[in-house]
Amino acid sequence: QAEDGIRDQPRSRGLGDVYKRQIINYINNSLPKLLTYFGEYGEEMRGISIYTDIELGEIVFYNIFYELFAFCTSIIVQDTNDNILHIRNLDFGLFMDFIVPYLKDLVVEISSVKNGIEQYRVHTYAGYIGALSSIKPHQYSLTLNLRWAFNGGYVGLISWFLGNIDQNWITITSREVLKYNHTFKDAYNTLSTTSLVSPIYFILAGVNPYEGVIITRDRNASLYPKFLDNSSWFLVQTNYDHWTSPPFFDDRRTPAEICLNKIDRERITLNNSYSILRTKPVLNKLTTFASFIN
User: Fold this and answer.
1) If DSSP codes are grouped into helix, strand and coil, which group holds residue 204?
2) Which tens digits make up the pLDDT trace of 217-260?
3) Regarding predicted confidence, which is higher, 89 or 100?
4) pTM score
């Protein structure tokens, strides 16, 4: 049974316990401003709402949700032949692991095609219009990991709803980069400088040697970017700053690094990298999908 206005209808059962009716009502009251800001992406969400018969406020809420609740592991590798590999596990729903089976059923791969040419490809959830894991063919790949920060997502959301609409939603930023940035360098510059609603880690990989970087983002600045270089043939990013030690209760970085060193640079391939993402706790009860990009 639904309590305190929590929605629990068949089409959203399992997700209903995530949020209270008051949040959806607030979003519904803010829809004119939200849809104006989202522009063509707002029309995408409106279309999803019409097609699925799910109210528009819920669709918008789902697209905001990633700013707050996604945990991930992203890895970039450069092998001895200077091939760049980019892999990731997407974990979702901190303290809400009951939604994972529902999200697994919503995983899709979407291609954006213009004039018969694929512009970019995205691994995501049906109904989410952002790009959680993506590739722009022959140019770069991009994954997003949530970042905890004192002035984090909740602060940015409140600020945005109070009128600071100069900040950009990650949902929109990820799509805009794929749409308008055609090179690794352009994508890096945009992801490093765009003002954001929420702090985030952008993990960006190109096609040329040493085109791999972890972009650690505060809402208004990039902090200590970490590139592939002669001393670092791989980069591992979870949800904690790379210059700090991860907490003992959620250390996915160390097991991933142990696996990479065990496989070693000469033997790493896209196929055997799967073993890294299958290693616990890199693989955990919140993992909903994995992406492999070469």
Assistant:
1) strand
2) 999 999 999 999 999 999 999 999 999 999 999 999 999 999 99
3) 89
4) 0.89
Over 80: is that where the pLDDT of 161 sits?
no
Residue among 271, 248, 276 at smallest CA distance from 75: 276
Identify the DSSP state of 246. P
pLDDT one-digit tens code per residue, 37-50: 888 999 999 999 99
Q: How far apart are CA 39 and CA 42, in angstroms?
A: 5
Q: Note if the bond before 281 is cis, omega within 30 degrees.
A: yes
Per-residue confidence band for 24, with pLDDT thresholds at 50, 70 and 90: confident
Cβ–Cβ < 8 Å for 230, 184: no
Distance CA 150, CA 159 (A): 14
The residues facing 180 across adjacent strands are: none
Q: What is the pLDDT of residue 153?
A: 66
Task: Check: CB of residue 71 under 8 Å from CB of residue 239.
Answer: yes
Which of 137, 106, 98 is closest to 119 using CA atoms? 137
The reply to whether 72 belongs to the active site is: yes
pLDDT of the residue at 14:
46
From 45, 72, 204, 293, active-site residue: 72
Helices (H), 95-248: 100-104, 153-161, 170-180, 184-193
Other CB atoms closer than 10 Å to residue 126's CB: what's the count? Answer: 13
Q: Cα-Cα-Cα-Cα dihedral of 267, 269, 272, 275, to 10°? A: 100
Q: What is the number of alpha carbons within 13 Å of residue 122 lying toward its C-beta?
A: 22
**What's the DSSP call for residue 98?**
G
* Helical axes 31-38 vs 21-29, angle rounded to 10°: 70
Tokens of 99: 């939604």
